[in-house]
Amino acid sequence: MKPVIFGLEGLTLSESEISFFKESDPAGYILFLRNIDNREQLRALTDSLRNLHGRNDLPILIDQEGGRVVRMKAPVWPSFPTWEKFDRLYDVAPASAIEAARVNAEALAHNLHEMGVSVNCLPLLDVRQPDAHDIIGDRALGSEPMRVAAMGRAVLDGMARAGVVGVVKHIPGHGRAYADSHLELPVVDATDEELSIDLAPFEALKDAAMGMTAHIVYTAWDEQECASLSPTILEDIIRKRIGFDGLLMSDDLDMKALKGDIPQLAADVVAAGCDLALNCWGRMDEMVGIAEKLSEITPGAKTRLNRAMASVEGMSPQTEFAALVDKRDQLLALA
User: Fold this and answer.
1) CA-wise closest residue to 106 among 270, 326, 289
2) What is the mean pLDDT of the chain?
3) How far, in Å, are 4, 118, 160 from residue 314 at the CA level?
4) Domains of the chain, CATH where assigned
5) How many angstroms separate the CA atoms of 120 and 169, rounded?
6) Which residues are catalytic?
7) Residue 203: pLDDT band by 50, 70, 90 thresholds?
8) What pTM did the predictor assign?
9) DSSP-based three-state secondary structure for 122
10) DSSP secondary structure of 166-207
11) Is the peptide bond before 172 cis (omega within 30 degrees of 0)?
């Protein structure tokens, strides 16, 4: 197995993808809007991926946050609110906000499980900061670390109840960035003491099954390399100081925060300490190059991957979707 998550080109697997994926055996896949049309098509696609590898526990990822970051769109699938709404409810009714976050996440994961999607890149544990770039913005769970942690835990629990693994992101925190890492490399000059605020939610949820790194330079820890490429940050900050022992993947290698050859970047993030490289765009030449550059997944990474997927083994939605949405809306109305 190669320590990489690959994207797909279209709505169905091509013959070249089938041949390549069989040979390279990536750890998992990630879906985007280009891979999604309708319910029947999407379920057939995820079934074909599992059948290709003979793995019912195959990680099939998606970014289905709600608000402005969704891949399964209306009107085929229902829309979900921004997480800022739950933060506002927390101001007046903390316990209700936590429960609303849980049932919202469970309802969201209900749709994913039905379509054969097993991993959702949620929750964001980024602590929102004033005047930072809006790439996080209303996607955040709040600007107070323990509030973010409490609702983040509820989101993980809600998705797990519906049989979907969550991914905490963006370790060690994207909330201070003054740039969008999709477009350029953000540099955060905050002190170590200031950054302890950003670390707090990740420390509180250090037992999460999966996590995703940030393509951000934190000068207090490493003036040269962003977190995804920094052995210092990956080992000393994420693994040791935070204590995160879950499966750790990079953010997307194609984001413009990173410079250089994509296959080499894949090798570099894994060499630096990420368990998996994330390559989202489904470009065959890049994927072939990545497979050639990467060695087999390490035993430790494989153990963390298996543990993550086993955390929802046998779980499936127990509550009707409509009941979850109705409860969420009643709670949000309290704000």
Assistant:
1) 326
2) 97
3) 25, 12, 10
4) 2-328 (3.20.20.300)
5) 11
6) 182, 251
7) very high
8) 0.97
9) coil
10) EEEEEET--TT-SS-TTTS--EE---HHHHHHHHHHHHHTTT
11) yes
